[in-house]
Amino acid sequence: MTAYDERLKRIMAAIAFEPVDRIPLVPCGTSFNAKVCGVKLADYVKSMPYNCTVNMKAAELIGGIDGVQNPIYSPDTLPLLWLSEVKIPGRSKGMSDNELWQVNEKELVKSEDYDLILSMGFYKWFNKFQRERLGNPIRKSIPFFLYLRRAIQRFRKAGYVCMNIGALATPFEMFCGGRSLESFFGEDLIEYPDKLQKVFRVTQAESMKTYAKMLNVFKPLGIWVGGWRGTPSMLSPDMFERFCWPYMEELANLCISKGVIPVFHLDSCWDNGLKYFNCLPAGKCIMALDGTTHICKAKETVGSKMCIMGDVPASLLAWGTENEVYEYCRGLIRDIGPNGFILSSGCDIPFNAKLENVRAMGAACKG
Predict the structure, then answer these.
(1) What is the CATH number of the domain that holds 332?
(2) Among 210, 220, 277, which residue's Cα sits nearest to residue 249?
(3) Residue 272: other Cβ atoms inside 10 A
(4) Sign of dihedral through CA atoms 235, 276, 256, 9?
(5) Cβ of 339: how many Cβ atoms within 10 Å?
(6) How far apart are CA 173 and CA 203, in angstroms?
(7) Are 174 and 137 in contact (CB under 8 A)?
């Protein structure tokens, strides 16, 4: 059995709640990978083949890894998810070569755009919007999508499983970013919820067709289904059930129908929304937590049917000690494992994480 086959078997067993020889480790690293390899972020995001090489080198430096969540990474893809401008190191005005990319959120989507979407459809509107107000991120993202399949092949040859190729965004996440948090929460959800719901339905229907084609082309093992702002901690139960959950559930079922694992990338606190995930088929999904949701409550609520992935906090990886990280991970393995658990960073490994702390995750998996 090859190293790849062994690691894939371990990961798939965790997802299916079958016994594992040890807990699999599948961290999420981007900017940290560049730093630990001594590469400036501007160079890291400039070339996708080089980006892949850096990510592979970082995996070797960390050690103990079974898979990765990002074989390559480009911040140019973020505006496609959030309809927001993203500042890129070494390229955007005022950004140094080693300054972390950042979302420059402002109200790019106007309230009158909702009427345009309802009259002309989402993608006809979006193609014009992204060229005129976002700087054409579709064109800038072409190198990422052209190299993605090759990056997966390179990681597989090196023995690593690629758990994710990108993200599927709900209408809530897209328009919250494009409208800005203040306008979206303070105006749209309150003043014209019925129109917003119609826009969401149009957007989701068109997005589902696009996402289905993408899954057919790349045939990934898994893909993120994101929840960043449309969370039960930000919304009332009625709003969450109306504007968020139905769209997440539909995206997850699309993935499952295509034989793809929906990886629920849940930022922020989901304690009050964990029960919703019980309606999904057992052994088909992953719930990835970022250290904010109470992971033991997640285990109690969905842990008999949905694999949990996480959730070493960014703060611990950056400011903790090697021993503290090791003990935290051993606690997760004891309390959340041994079945149905994948150890990972809580969201991304932070740029300022210590290498010895990240290595401690792999050491904890080995016991």
Answers:
(1) 3.20.20.210
(2) 277
(3) 16
(4) positive
(5) 16
(6) 12
(7) no
pLDDT score of 261 more than 90: yes
pLDDT in tens, 32-51: 999 999 999 999 999 999 99
Do 90 and 41 touch, CB atoms closer than 8 A?
yes
pLDDT band (50, 70, 90) for residue 1: confident
State the CB neighbour count (10 A cutoff) for residue 5: 11
Tokens 């969450």, residue located? 240
β-bridge pairing 67-68 and 161-162: parallel
Number of domains in the chain: 1
Q: The domain containing residue 260 runs over which residues?
A: 3-366
Taking only the tens place, the pLDDT of each residue in 95-151 is 999 999 999 999 999 999 999 999 999 999 999 999 999 999 999 999 999 999 999
Q: CA 230, CA 209: separation in Å to the nearest integer?
A: 22
Beta-ladder partners of 288: 265, 309
pLDDT at 227: 84
